[in-house]
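Journal club prep — side note

Before the paper discussion, L.F. wants everyone to see what a predicted structure for a comparable chain looks like in C-alpha cell form. Sequence:
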Amino acid sequence: MLIINKEKIKISLFDTLQFVVSIFLILGINFWFHACGMKADGTYMNCHEAEMIIKVISYIIIGLVVIKALIRNSIFKAGISVGILSISLLMILIPKVLVSLCMYDSMACNKYMRPYTLMFGIIFMVISCVEIVLTYLKTRKAN
C-alpha cells in the first residue's frame, strides 16, 4: 500500500521540469502542432494515427512524471527515468519511421508535428539522461 506523507514530499527540479515539458507537449500536439486533417471523403491519413499514438505517449509520460514526483527513493526515480527515456525514444521514432507520414514536406504532419515531436523527445531524453547520471553518481558516492 502506498502511503504518501505530504510533509516529506520533495519535488525535484527534474520532476518539475519534466512535468512542465510534458504539459507543453500535450497542449502543443492537441492544439497547434497536430497532423493533417480529414480528407475530402471523410477518412484520415496515416499521420492521424501517428498523432494519436503520440498523444497516448504524452499522457503516459505525464503519468510517469506524476508517479515519479511522489516517490522518494532515488533508485526508483532513476528507474522511472529510464522508462521515460525509452518512451521518448519511441516518440521520436513514431513519425516517419514506425508510422509513415504524408508524402509531401509541405503537409502539416511533416511541417509541424514531426519537428515538434522530435524536439520534445530529445528534451525528455536529455532530462532523463542527466537525472540518471546524477543519481548514479550520487549513489556511487554514498557507497
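L.F.'s comment for the group: The first helix runs from residue 13 to 32. Keep this in mind when we get to the figures.
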